[in-house]
Design goal:
This protein has about 325 residues and is of the alpha+beta class. It folds into 2 domains: about 120 residues, Ferric Hydroxamate Uptake Protein, Chain A, domain 1 (Beta Complex), CATH 2.170.130.30; about 170 residues, Chitobiase, domain 2 (2-Layer Sandwich), CATH 3.30.379. It is built from 9 helices and 20 strands. A 7-stranded mixed β-sheet has the order 11-10-12-17-16-18-19, sandwiched between helices. Strands 1, 2, 6, 7, 8 and 9 form a 6-stranded mixed β-sheet that branches. Strands 13-14-15-20 form a 4-stranded antiparallel β-sheet, covered by helices on one side. A hairpin with a 7-residue loop joins strand 16 and strand 17. Helix 3 runs parallel beside helix 7. The chain is globular, with a radius of gyration of 20 Å. It starts with 7 loop residues before the first helix and ends with a strand.
Length: about 325
């Protein structure tokens, strides 16, 4: 996590808590909390606890330290290593530990962030050569739609290019089946700081939304390792270095999350055509999305986690409508 300046007293307190494993006090322990530790954008699970050890009120740092071996830096507010795996450099690229709560990137250090009931806490060590800001991910689904953001459940709105389409109705039905009181609306164009929006439709009909437009500009702006080609007829899948290694054509889908400025996260269920959108909508499940930053759906075969390793790209290129791309 990129270090942020903290007042000297906060740094001292953070260091003390990191060493002592303390939380916030003897208040009620948050319930239904999950802790996941992975590496390489979720490619490998290192630690998974559906019922981690919790003692009273906790911070993200104290909870991690209670359930794993942790070393810290910058006064104890930022993680250096978990169970012996450190940040630093790997194959010449910078790697570090980042954490997400309910699929939303942290805005504060782990020692300053409180654990709330229902939180899904996810630490991942990955290459940040393209961006140190991946604002939202899909791998904690059905969060953030249930427990919300920073302990607050937010309104949810499914915005569809075609309200009667099977993809739109499928996404709406899926969320409501989980107990999410999602509303249905047409594409609004953003400016909803306190509403979780799920956009459903072909990219050509979503591109005007500011959050979707960020995806067009690459991971440095959106945190999503994919780009759409001319007229949104192709989908380029990127590796961790931002290079396009695989291109999907007809019937390809994308399911991703991002965040525009200070607004709530926006989820995008889209594709190169209606069939691609349907494939993305069908992927809205915990089984498909678990521990993935974003997911691409080729016209046939299994879903692909993003960013995509180049060997996976070559194997996936056997699918109809897919081809590998040369990289510099």
């Amino acid at each position: 996590m990129t270090p942020r300046r903290l007042p000297s007293l906060m740094v001292a307190l953070a260091a003390l808590c990191a060493l002592a494993g303390c939380g916030l006090g003897a208040g009620s322990a948050p319930t239904d909390v999950q802790l996941t530790v992975t590496r390489d954008f979720g490619a490998r699970v290192l630690h998974q606890a559906h019922a981690p050890r919790i003692v009273g009120e906790e911070t993200i740092m104290s909870l991690l330290g209670r359930n794993a071996s942790v070393t810290t830096r910058y006064g104890g507010g930022f993680v250096q290593s978990i169970d012996g795996l450190s940040g630093g450099s790997e194959s010449g690229d910078p790697v570090d530990w980042f954490y997400y709560v309910n699929g939303v990137e942290a805005t504060k250090g782990a020692a300053a962030t409180v654990v709330h009931p229902g939180d899904r806490i996810w630490w991942d060590r990955h290459d940040w050569s393209q961006t140190d800001d991946v604002p939202a991910v899909v791998g904690s689904f059905p969060e953030p739609f249930l427990a919300g953001v920073e302990g607050k459940r937010l309104p949810v709105r499914v915005e569809c290019a075609e309200a009667e389409s099977s993809a739109c109705q499928g996404v709406l039905g899926r969320l409501r089946s989980l107990g999410v009181p999602a509303a249905l609306a047409s594409i609004s164009g953003g400016d909803e700081p306190y509403t979780l929006r799920v956009l459903v439709g072909p990219l050509s009909k979503l591109a005007a939304d500011p959050g979707v437009h960020q995806i067009e500009s690459g991971p440095r702006y959106s945190g999503v390792y994919a780009r759409f080609g001319a007229e949104a007829k192709t989908l380029q899948l990127l590796d961790a270095n931002g290079r396009a290694v695989l291109m999907l054509g007809v019937h390809a889908g994308l399911l991703a999350a991002t965040r525009y400025r200070e607004e709530a996260p926006v989820w995008v269920v889209t594709g190169t055509d209606e069939d691609g959108v349907n494939r993305a909508a069908a992927a809205l499940s915990e089984a498909t999305l678990r521990d993935r930053f974003a997911v691409a759906l080729p016209s046939t075969g299994a879903s692909l986690a993003l960013p995509i390793p180049e060997p996976v790209a070559h194997a996936a290129a056997a699918s109809p409508g897919a081809q590998t791309l040369s990289t510099p």
